[in-house]
Amino acid sequence: MTLGEKIEQAISESGESYEAVAAYTGISVATLRRLTKKDSADTADLIKISEILKKPLGYFLSELVSNSGQQQIANQVKKNRQQISVGGENLDELRHQLELCQVERESLTKQLADKEQIIELLRSK
């Protein structure tokens, strides 16, 4: 099965429309339909397609790359994980922001508990 056939099959199985997949991927419907006729695709497009169709990237690559080739791709992705970005921010930046949010949450929780204690003291007087 070609890459294009796998994309076409995945779209069909997902229930997503070509329009929705194309919009999420950032390409036109015509370009998406052309991809279903080819045996190659831009990596960024393929990643977006796999995301919206909820298929692992390996699903599309399984017949194109040997097992050792898949392992090499997986190792390269793992090696470069800091370069993978979400909305323009890399994984390390997102982890740092999460840590800051957790610290702020703990602080706010303590402040709330302190205020509740003050309210109880004032009510008891």
TrEMBL record:
Coiled-coil segments on the chain, per record: 91-125
Keyword tRNA-binding listed: no
Alphabetized PROSITE patterns for the sequence: HTH_CROC1
Keyword line: Coiled coil
HTH cro/C1-type domain sequence ranges: 19-60
Pfam families per the UniProt record, alphabetical: HTH_3
Keyword Coiled coil (UniProt): yes
Top-level taxonomic group: Bacteria
Family annotation (InterPro entries): Cro/C1-type_HTH, Lambda_DNA-bd_dom_sf
Residues making up the signal peptide according to the UniProt record: none
The name this protein goes by in its record: Helix-turn-helix domain-containing protein
Organism (species): Rufibacter roseus
